[in-house]
Specification:
Rossmann fold, N-(1-d-carboxylethyl)-l-norvaline Dehydrogenase, domain 2, 2 domains, 8-stranded mixed β-sheet, 16 helices, 10 strands, binds NADPH dihydro-nicotinamide-adenine-dinucleotide phosphate, binds 1,3-dihydroxyacetonephosphate
Length: about 325
């Protein structure tokens, strides 16, 4: 059985989430062999010497064999059975540009990314399938209401691993679980990915409203309407029976919309307080996926034509230079 095998697992990415995933994997009792690719050789040298990522979750001690840290993507991919992608969606294409479909052959490929691949407007599972011929039976996604910062603190957290192949989902779920991470599996790979990408847009909206001075009463209405918007869209693009109240959908929205750690909410909050999009991005040294996602969604929704007033308002603020206060005033008339 797949779940009983010891695997070589490569994590691709050097940011907070990749760091948290490496921590989860290395705190797991099954002791798969973990490899970690990041683009920056100085960070690798620092990690080898001090066992800490110098720039993200820098308090976390990383227990990985120094020789398994690498900036050589192609040869590390060749060594492993499982590849976990954890770079922001906008940079994925560039990060793996040297790889071809042949490199992914017979590998299990897992997306921990919550974003659309922007040149094709595809969720990552679809991108892996269409661009690299990875069969859906070898693809999984990691989702759930889980911030890297709380993983660093070993706060009890839950992840959902979605795949059309239950054995693959179980393998990844088992590899990530440990005393502070609980995992469940799902076969709704499309719904899980779309909901995880969309919630970033609503967290930007939540941050904007907070920055503008709207209170908890309004936020509750905004988030209730947001989950309905997610449901309408996900059911339109992939209509199967799903309970939108599950943690992988509603939980993921709630944590991102309300948490102090949320990159997307922080970004939105700055916009509400009067920062320009550019200056907010420069000030944060982390990536708010919602910024990229809302543009892709706007384009995808030209086909589906789902009623999405909150996402539309975020798009207007980020890409049409409409003032946040005016746009949210107009949006407020459409919520109930
Ligand atoms: N953080 C979290 O709690 C969670 C994040 N995710 C998802 O994980 C993915 C990664 O996000 P996260 O780790 O948080 O990101 P961070 O904001 O923590 O880190 C940003 C990463 O992006 C890289 N990067 C920035 N600019 C560029 C560029 N121009 N070209 C290539 N790479 C670049 C950085 O590399 P460098 O340091 O070398 O500049 C760094 O590795 C996202 O899709 C996010 O939605 C999912 C669940 C939880
Ligand atoms: O997806 C995430 C938590 O589930 C991370 O995104 P945020 O940092 O915006 O919350």
């Amino acid at each position: 059985m797949l779940t009983e095998e010891k695997k070589n697992i490569l994590v691709i990415g050097g940011g907070s989430w990749a760091t948290a995933i490496v921590k989860m994997l290395t705190d797991n009792s099954r002791k798969h062999t973990i490899y970690w690719w990041m683009r920056n050789q100085e960070d690798i040298d620092h990690l080898r010497k001090y066992r800490h990522n110098p720039r993200y979750l820098s308090s976390v001690e990383i227990n990985i064999e120094p020789e398994n840290l690498t900036s050589d993507l192609k040869s590390s991919v060749a060594k492993v059975d499982v590849i976990i992608l954890a770079v922001p969606a906008a940079f994925l294409k560039g990060a793996i540009a040297e790889l071809s479909a042949e490199d992914f052959k017979d590998k299990i490929v897992v997306s921990a990314i919550k974003g659309f691949e922007p040149s094709d407007n595809l969720i990552i599972g679809e991108y892996l399938n269409t661009r690299y011929n990875v069969p859906f039976s070898n693809i999984a996604v990691i989702s759930g209401p889980c911030h890297a910062e709380e993983v660093a603190l070993e706060k009890l957290s839950y992840l959902t691993i979605a795949s059309q192949n239950t054995e693959v989902a179980q393998l990844i779920a088992q590899a990530l679980s440990n005393r502070y991470i609980k995992t469940t599996v799902s076969d709704d790979i499309y719904g899980t990915e779309y909901a995880a990408v969309l919630k970033n847009i609503f967290a930007v909206a939540s941050g904007i409203c907070h920055g503008l001075g709207y209170g908890d009463n309004f936020q509750a209405v905004l988030i209730s309407n947001s989950i309905q918007e997610i449901k309408r869209f996900v059911d339109a693009v992939h209509p199967i029976g799903r309970d939108i109240k599950d943690s992988a959908y509603l939980g993921d929205l709630l944590v991102t919309a309300y948490s102090q750690f949320s990159r997307n909410r922080t970004f939105g909050n700055m916009l509400g307080k009067g920062y320009s999009v550019k200056s907010a991005q420069l000030e944060m040294n982390m990536v708010a996926e919602g910024y990229y996602a809302v543009k892709c969604l706007h384009e995808i929704n030209r086909i589906h034509k789902v009623y999405m007033p909150i996402s539309r308002a975020v798009y207007a603020i980020l890409y049409e230079n409409i003032s946040p206060s005016m746009e949210i005033r107009l949006l407020a008339e459409k919520l109930s």
